[in-house]
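quick q for whoever's on today - can somebody do inverse folding on this one?? i tried earlier but teh output was garbage lol. tokens:
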């Protein structure tokens, strides 16, 4: 074995694995679309929102895979930085993972907050429509209607005439049973509508929290890349890592 080979084997691995890099950029692209289609929904064409639910469910699934991969594959060490920066990076990473799981799940729960098809609650909801709920963004939106069952209308809505919500047009999104069953009877529909509104507020606020976390994450990476002259972006496949740690 050559000296160069021994030296290479002794160095810490600075680059994430190809699987981690692929998951990172796939999730990042989907998050960018969901934040844009969600937070800017009042300003965008109605059709831009059409894949919001499918994208959110995909983010949830890929994030679970990402968490599993991280738990079973040790990530590369941090590049040289101050102790407080490492601590901040760990906190932001943890909060990002939490948001990537909880925000799509809250959207899924919001869609589930409608009576089961064919139930007495669904019949009652059709005869007693809810009033206009808070919009899915923090800015009131009186123009947008429709979308997934109950989305943009408040919870406790009768089933959609065009059928269940499909993920990427391929298969129906299963509802979260405890949330859906709240509206199975007429007495439960008002409670289900209240639950939907609470989830919707959390979902809208969560979008802004996720945006803030992403800005901190990207800002930190650019600071290490441009100010500290560390090859931070190369760790995620954008360029080459240096042969040694400084």
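ok took a stab at it. sequence:
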């Amino acid at each position: 074995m050559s000296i160069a080979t021994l030296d290479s084997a002794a160095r810490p691995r600075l680059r994430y694995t190809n699987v981690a890099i692929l998951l990172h950029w796939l999730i990042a692209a989907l998050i960018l679309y969901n934040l844009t289609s969600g937070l800017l929904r009042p300003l965008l064409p109605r059709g831009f929102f059409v894949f919001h639910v499918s994208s959110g469910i995909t983010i949830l699934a890929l994030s679970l895979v990402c968490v599993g991969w991280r738990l079973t594959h040790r990530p590369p060490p941090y590049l040289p930085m101050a102790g407080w920066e490492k601590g901040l990076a760990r906190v932001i990473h943890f909060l990002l993972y939490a948001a990537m799981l909880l925000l799509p799940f809250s959207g899924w729960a919001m869609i589930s907050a409608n009576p089961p098809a064919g139930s007495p609650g669904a019949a009652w909801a059709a005869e007693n429509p809810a009033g206009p709920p808070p919009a899915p963004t923090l800015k009131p939106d009186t123009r947008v209607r429709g979308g997934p069952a109950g989305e943009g209308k408040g919870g406790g809505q009768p089933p959609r005439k065009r059928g269940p919500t499909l993920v990427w047009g391929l298969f129906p999104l299963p509802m979260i049973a405890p949330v859906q069953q709240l509206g199975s009877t007429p007495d439960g529909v008002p409670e289900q509508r209240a639950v939907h509104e609470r989830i919707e507020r959390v979902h809208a606020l969560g979008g802004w929290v996720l945006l803030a976390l992403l800005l901190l994450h990207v800002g930190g990476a650019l600071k290490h890349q441009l100010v500290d002259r560390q090859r931070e972006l190369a760790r995620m496949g954008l360029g080459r890592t240096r042969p040694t740690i400084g």
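fwiw The chain has a mean pLDDT of 84. also Residues 145 and 152 are 6 Å apart (CA to CA). so keep that in mind when u check it
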